[in-house]
Amino acid sequence: MNRLWWQAPCETPDGDTESSALAHQAQLTKPTGSLGQLEAIAVRLAGLQRTVKPELDRLWITVFAGDHGVVAEGVSAYPQAVTVEMLRNFVQGGAAISVLARHLGATLEVIDLGTAYPYDALSGVQSLALGPGTANLCQAAAMSEAQLDAALGAGRAAVERAKTNGAQLFIGGEMGIGNTTAASALGCALLGVPAARLVGPGTGLDDRGVGHKTKVIETALARHRQATAPSEALRCLGGFEIAALTGAYLACAQAGVPALVDGFISSVAALCAVRMNPSVAPWLFYGHRGAEPGHAAVLAALGADPLLELGLRLGEGSGAALAVPLLRQACALHGEMATFAEASVSDRPA
pLDDT tens-digit profile of 264-299? Predict the structure, then answer.
């Protein structure tokens, strides 16, 4: 496999279908624009799916998990053992994303890219074992080139499975103690901003903890200041699961599968994907604006208009999953509302 596969062109939305969908919207029994973002979403999905009346019945969710060597710097309120414990919770159906996937009728898969603690095989968890978590990004590059390639490829493979199974929408989730530190460091490198601009409490740090986390990230940014290319910044400062999400978003755009992006960590991965291949951008929708302080800055850099703002900071793909009903209702309204002619309702004069 070409290790630079992510540079290949992405699919192009169908402008003619989008125009036809927009014309269809104009004939529905409502004032033009009265459904706000829902109208634009339906029209955009029409162009992506190449059908005037898009549908989102088949949903695929992949949760990527991995541990982080930077946890050794004391940046998390939770122990690293939680990553493995949550793998078990995902497949046993007790995690938030597990509940949401059930209620959405979605396919849910869980991929362990490399955890710090060994565990007995778990039914429903695909273990790729890229390493016992990443290296401590304060002391070395988080990943080797081989690990980065494998993590990006894991995201691509998940999208290929989704595409083969007819998925109409892809959601990537993440789990990994310490991953807000890695995501903040990567986001700072991509945006060229100091750590204090993006750093937040993650899973619950107090002000002192946030201050320490900020210093840790500044140390990492100084060490890897030569990593200016987006892919190199990802290798030096990211995590296995962040790289897998990046690979998934790149692969979605190349395969013609719309993706719904979750919270801060997923949005940093989306920013990295867009920086690596700008033609990814039209294929990404954004589920919500989360409580992590850096999320707004990353969304602004992406020009994103998120669907929800509920103060979420869980991850796992949960915020994106919560936004799925809105996307589905946008499609239903676009596809099922009567036109003025069908309902014998007078349209406004031309």
Answer: 999 999 999 999 999 999 999 999 999 999 999 999
For residue 79, CA distances in Å to 72, 75, 209, 318, 322 come to 10, 10, 15, 22, 27
| Active-site residue (options: 18, 39, 292, 316) | 316
Task: Look at the chain and count its residues.
Answer: 350
Q: Of 56, 55, 57, 44, which Cα lies nearest the Cα of 17?
A: 44
Q: In angstroms, rounded to a whole number, what is the distance separating the alpha carbons of residues 130 and 252?
A: 23
Angle, alpha carbons 294-297-298 (nearest 5°): 85
For the chain, domain boundaries: 59-326
| Residue 109 annotated to the active site | no
Q: How many helices (H) and strands (E) does the chain have?
A: 13, 6
Q: How many CA atoms lie within 13 A of 113 on its CB side?
A: 32
Q: How many CA atoms, within 13 angstroms, populate the side-chain half-sphere of residue 156?
A: 19
Identity of the amino acid at 278:
P
What confidence tens digit (pLDDT) does each residue in 128-173 have? 999 999 999 999 999 999 999 999 999 999 999 999 999 999 999 9
Q: Domain 59-326 maps to which CATH number in 3.30.450.20, 3.40.50.10210, 3.10.20.90, 3.20.20.70?
A: 3.40.50.10210
pLDDT digits (tens, 9 = 90+) for 218-276: 999 999 999 999 999 999 999 999 999 999 999 999 999 999 999 999 999 999 999 99
